[in-house]
Amino acid sequence: MRYVLALVVLLFSGHSLGSPSKPLLSWAINTGPPFHIVGGSFNQQGLCDQLLNSIQTHLPNISHQNVLMPQTRIHQALNNREALCFPCMIHRAQPTETAVFSNPTHWYRPQGIITRQALADHLTQHFGSPLVLTKLLAAKTFKLGLAAGRRYGDIEPLLEPYRKNELIRSGDNGPIALLNMIQSGRIDFTLDYDILLTYLNKTAPQQAKGLVYVPIAELPAPIAGAVGCSNSEWGKQQVELINTVIPKVQTDPAFRHSLHLWFDGKVLTAPSEPKIKPER
User: Fold this and answer.
1) Mind listing the pLDDT tens digit for each residue in 236-246?
2) Domain of life here (predicted)?
């Protein structure tokens, strides 16, 4: 599978770069393990790498192009309604200004605080267990780090007032770089999924030492992942097409293996989520 650097690629709509017989679907990917992994021992074995591979396998009548882009550029491209899809977004029942969403593809344990063990004990003593994020943020005592371009679903409105004053880490492998900054004491905590620690334990166990995940009260339930495409007529058409193959993707052995790899065998399903049937 080839990757095209976003700096030298213009994203054209629909059919312009595809073969005469196949329409083109441009996909954004980024360097954000364990979702997308570019290089190293788990190269292209990220959760969203495997999700994307499976979708592309099950849509053989489409020409697919993967475009390597920073997270901030992906968000900007979707906001600009460029002809682009991103395989690893938080599912929304309704479209947003940024994107329209496929049916759920898989489920995460909810995002929480990642911090040092000693500080985690202190935070839960003062802000509860599960930790009340609104109280922690309002205290303005501990330094938060966020990955540039990341959006956090239902808790995004809680974070927005703090974004201008909090450390934003951009560049490659932003979430992992934030964990390194927590270890060194430059920041105190970040917000992310526990599978980030799974990745670090598998690739750099010394860097993961002493880091822990702390659940937050604002996110008690599993979070559904989904494909997002630009909120345009083109994007809506792609989502309708992608929805037809999601049931096959969810049973794809390679994708299932990836889920087990990064969730340490504890793969979630939403208890109340009905099985998704192929559209007819």
Assistant:
1) 999 999 999 99
2) Bacteria
Assigned CATH topology for domain 112-214: D-Maltodextrin-Binding Protein; domain 2 (3.40.190)
How far is residue 208's CA from residue 274's CA, in Å, rounded to a whole number?
36
Pairing of strands 24-29, 63-68: parallel
Q: 3-class DSSP state for residue 118?
A: helix
Q: Three-state DSSP class for 114?
A: strand
CATH number assigned to the domain covering 3-108+223-262: 3.40.190.10
Cα–Cα distance measured from residue 77 to residue 203, given in angstroms and rounded to the nearest whole number = 31
- Assign 271 a pLDDT band (cuts: 50, 70, 90): low
Estimate to the nearest angstrom the gap between the alpha carbon of 83 and the chain centroid: 19
Instruction: Please name which of 119, 108, 112 lies closest in space to residue 191, comparing C-alpha atoms.
Output: 112
Please say whether the beta carbons of 115 and 124 come within 8 A.
no
β-bridge partners, 115: 189, 212
